[in-house]
Amino acid sequence: MRQSSNIKKFVAACCSAALAAGLLAIAPGISAEEKSAETGESSLAIEPAFKANGYDRYLDRYKDEAKPKQVIRFEAEHYESVEGMKAVRFEDENGKSGGAVLADETGTIHWKFEVKNAGLYNIKLRYFNTPGKNSDIERELRIDGQIPFAEANSIFLQRTWKSERSKVERDDRGNDIRPNHTEESVWQEVALRDITGYYEEPYFIYFSEGIHTLSLTSLKEPAVIDWIELFQTEKMIDYKDQLDVYKQNGYAEASNAFVKLQAEDAVLKSSSTLYPIMDRTPATEPYHVSKMRMNAIGGWNWRMPGQWIEWEIEVPSSGLYQIALKSKQTANRGLSSTRALYVDGKTPFKEAGRLSFEYSGDWQMKVLGSEAKEPYMFYLTEGKHRLRLEVTLGELAPILRTVESSVLELNSLYRKIISFTGVVPDPFRDYQLEKRIPELIEGLLLQSETIDGVAALLEGYDGKTSERTALLQTLSYQLKDMAKRPETIPSRLEPFKTNVGALGTWMMQVKEQPLAVDYLLVTSPGADLPRAKATFFEKFVHENASFLASFFEDYASVGTVENEDEAVSVWVLTGRDQAQTLKKMIDNDFTSETGIPINLQLVSANVLLSATLAGKGPDVAIQVGNDVPVNFAMRGALQDLSEFEDFDEVIKRFQPSAMVPYEYLGKYYALPEQQIFPVLFYREDILHELGLSVPETWEDVYQMIPVLQKNNLQFGLPQATLDASAVTDQMPPNPAYTMMLYQSDGELYQKDGKSSALDTEVSIQAFQKWTELYANYKLPITFDFPNRFRTGEMPIGIADYSTYNHLSVSAPEIRGLWDFAPVPGTRLDNGDVRREAPGRGFGVVMFKDAEHKQAAWEFTKWWTAKEAQVDFGLEMEGLMGIAARYPTANIEALQELPWPTADLTKLMGQWQWVKGIPEVPGGYFTGRHLDNAFRRVVLQGDDARETIDLYVRYVNEEMTIKRKEFGLPIEK
Hints:
alpha+beta; seven-stranded antiparallel beta sheet
């Protein structure tokens, strides 16, 4: 129990430091409800600062209130009123006879009820996850018309998922195919709690005596609600008391019991991303030296608090059993991954809510037990039982809350410092900060001690520094030294800000709790368990056999195909998961309907060019970048798709802008698969704090930037980047510049693509406007937008709408605090705002020498049609989660993907303004030299007009050379 002892010492140190900090603006507090750690005391109960309107502050306000034993339940169908939705009475064979109410994905439903005993209550509801768009159900909770605390903005109700088939299928080459997930609609009873894992207990909400209103506003997805209940969560006993219960009931240990269950055979999961995974080591079950075997579950995908996996086991007789897992945790060096165990829906005792899985470079046999290596015993009756493991932060939860509070306090101190020094202090001036900011020294020392305590705790028993604690120790030393030598603070502001920002990233990394499981064992106590690790001889045989297999195994093809001579050869340029999903769709939906065989192959994008030049290319290639079709078409490699009779009808599926990059000399050489465009992301909480509104026009942006910079915040504009995985290394024109250009009726090319239009007056004005944002307003040129957006350093910026997926996965702590809007535009004389923005994407091409052109065209039409695009998008999201949400170019398909209604409306509105970027001979110089001109003006201070004129000459020269090469007319 050394780590528990360390935690208590850390608490004592932090509490002492907190008492010494009485002069700080925000004083620490101790939450009575947090005393639920293993020892019965708070393992880390101090809160150096409370989040504005956060749950900590709310709970502290009512910490002395009673917790009545009264249970108040009201049936959902007896609602008081609804707004913005049509509440439908729902009855199902699995539901109660009293019925339930189906709440739509938009609108609000209100219930009234009476509370006779004032106090703190938990809230539980029974719901049914009716089919929707495959994402978690999200609601906003209000009590008497008010949101009680910030976290109540987003209450999540999880869906349940299961594998589509009970057994893993294999393709024609003997490789396991990762099973798809389907939603399992079941009734669930859940207490409302924090989805981020910062609080292990359900939320407590105070109700005074009298009549109250509870409201749930639908933010995402429909759900059926049966009833809502105010109650008190049952307190769990510890394992020692549970053993006494076993003895009192006369429970005996099970004998000669050995139940083994492969972990990949889970019956239910909380997320569609918790799919079986492959681990090609000789110790896993099942194992094959060269074939893909789905032989484990979890891994990196099973890391976020709240995610759970459930298995069904059957024991031969009633008795006391031990539970073991063959597991592997190789991601968090120096830390453990924590899981909460539920047996038939309940945690059997307190310690089972915090099961630790230590870091290991290999598989290990983990018997669930105490730190003293004493296995826990679980009483199971004869028959079937459900075992569920849920990701939890355990004792890390209060630690992370403490670090989060430190970040808030350090950012506050930073803002106070720069209010006197400015962002770039004078190195020769003594600002006497310790006098101007009386609480500065004390605040720095307090946070140094707190962060140093966290580092010491995480170092654990051996006291060794790890990658998880190095940053903490660096920042702790820096704060202590700054307090000791306050005259050095101005010259150290930049590294100070950098380290505080890195601390926010550190929090996200530590919060992740990955774990892979090969199989579960439920056995008699003390039973001999299998060896988890492979022996040296097994590893030796595996490595040699794997090497030999590499000479015979074809890792490029996905499945096999009959009638290969008549098959259409299709190359996929992305990943194996996408290829396997597409192969399954082809076999089930395309070949079975049309009789056209498809030979699908997975290849690297950089192979396409060399294979085409060698005459070994495919008939069709999918997921190729926008720059590829015209560049290949110039050289006679691609088929003109507009020659097919129904081409004009087919292209109605897409926005006209999606076809622009594929047009060359009046002919079209691709159909769009994906179209991606920019939108404006913003942090609602920070803009509200600063008194700013979302900018409608660029003039609004100019007015906003000084306010942001005064608070050391930034506005983000996108920069053009090279895609390392692309077929070519062409840099597209900068999105921000192109946005301003198109909104001013400018174009990139003129005279039917014979020359650049960057030297026209409207283009030059757009270039000046763009570069001035960096030269005069000092916007950052390079940055990681999702990370800065998450930390709040860049609370507003323009980025591709696919960033939505990234933020939804990587930034759960700001869920509900951000949104997106159309890009800033240019206001017209009539008051309207035009919001043109450039689009990019991927398409499908057919090669000129394809043998079966009509068959290839049928495949191309099928693949870009609404049905196939929706099915593929849902399959990928079901396989890999929201991070893989598909940005389809098909207009109707996008509307059927699982976007929240409000977000979809905004996306469709911006999509109408998107303009395509044309591809012309020599056009690859445009983006490259536009970037050169930009950097010369911004970094070297050259004149914008003269610089762009200079680089336009280079662009025109290259365009002329290429037009001559292809026998095209040139500008006279």
